[in-house]
Write a structure and sequence with these properties.
With 132 residues, this protein is an alpha/beta fold. 44% of the residues lie in helices and 17% in strands. It has a single domain (16-127), classed as Rhodanese-like domain (Oxidized Rhodanese, domain 1, 3-Layer(aba) Sandwich).
Length: 132
């Protein structure tokens, strides 16, 4: 029994998914890391999106959310068995959503620190939002 407990304590860091907070970096695009933009449609229209990012709204304009619908779309568009990044306007929403995805679903999530506002300052390529 002592051996089993020791083994579990040793392995526990490897059994949990990762949640990291990192500033935007061009390397994310170079290595084709999926970036999921969880802002609202109006925000996408206002500021555009990081080139190549995947727009999947989490909170609507009234701060309401639909977790099953979000997860369905996320899993249709992103291989969630691999690491991916989340971006919002300033990083507040991605902090909540990213921790949830990591803690509850064991996804490997990078929370882009400072959101699109900081990504813009770090010269991220921004493209206009086009409804599909």
């Amino acid at each position: 029994m002592k051996y089993l407990i020791t083994l579990l304590l040793f392995l526990s860091p490897f059994l949990h998914a990762e949640y990291k907070v990192q500033p935007f970096a061009q390397e994310m695009l170079a290595k084709q890391l999926p970036i999921v933009d969880i802002r609202t449609v109006d925000e996408w229209k206002e500021t555009g999106l990081v080139k190549g990012s995947i727009p999947i709204q989490f909170f609507d304009e009234r701060a309401q959310y639909d977790i099953p619908a979000f997860l369905k779309e996320l899993n249709e568009k992103v291989d969630t068995s691999k690491e991916f990044a989340l971006i919002c306007r300033t990083g507040s929403r991605t902090s909540m959503v990213g921790k949830f995805l990591s803690d509850q679903l064991k996804y490997k999530v990078i929370d882009i620190q400072g959101g699109i506002m900081d990504a813009y300052k770090l010269h991220a390529p921004i493209v206009p939002y086009k409804r599909k």
